[in-house]
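May I ask you for just one protein sequence along with its backbone structure tokens in two labelled lines?

_____
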Amino acid sequence: MARPVAAVTGATGFLGRHLVRALDEAGWSVRVLARRDPVHPLCRGVETEVVIGHLADEAALARLCLGAQALVHAAGLVKARTAAAFDAVNTSGARDAAIAARRAGLERMVLVSSLAAREPQLSDYAASKRAGEVAAAEVLGERLTVSRPPVIYGPGDVETLQLFRAMARTPVFPTFHPDARIAVIHAQDAARQIAALTRGIGAGGTVALSDVRPDGYAWNEILRAAAAALGVRRRLVRLPDAAFDLVGAAGAFLRMAGGSPILTPGKAREIRHLNWGVSAGERCDQLPQPGFDLPLGFAETVGWYRRAGWLGA
């Protein structure tokens, strides 16, 4: 019996590579949209059909969705120079993917959004993700399921890598508000949960993902887990909000000068936000249970970085 086809955008990104494997293991035949044939160690051993193209290519999106049963739209930008650049991918891209899914008669589309979409006033990124949810829902209605992962980390992640690199060489490390709570999830767990949503679990709703601590971790817990994974001891010093805002302002200047720094005023507001936990009403109990808590997940991730040569011993 032929496997059902899951079409995937964003398959060459950090989460997307884990998602391709999770969908394959869940019994899907995976078809991906890519600008070129993707080759990556995390995708080794997984057979995929590749449609060459990009999100703004209507014909490529049509080929991607033709004959598929579901579309997982995981493509997105996490940093950009302008709000318009975020909107072009995170909002218009979600709308275009939904239109392609509707035209092809797909049973469902799973939109990989972000927990940041819960607070669209904080940043251009958060606003673009919320707008993408709204745009896709206007096209597909109950055939759309929105997944909102929190901070995702794991093998292949270049953003969390910067945290580990900085902590490896800095004996004193900044920490933030002690009342803040941040939900996180390992990429493998996020991918397995999204694959479950693709089967129809949580259909027509918005589902937040998390690891075994949906209420989230304090900053000190996160940083101490990172230090333990590295095998180092670090002194944590509370960074005043005003100092953090200055760093965000510097990022804004670099963005105006032509760069795309990850730390902008909007990102600083996201980091300073106190409640990134996931409530019971946002979760779906039918999703696969996470296999990683933070200490285990960080240890596994650091091990991968070192084996890949991304992080020194």
Remarks:
- The first strand starts at residue 5 and ends at 9.
- The two ends are 47 Å apart (CA to CA).
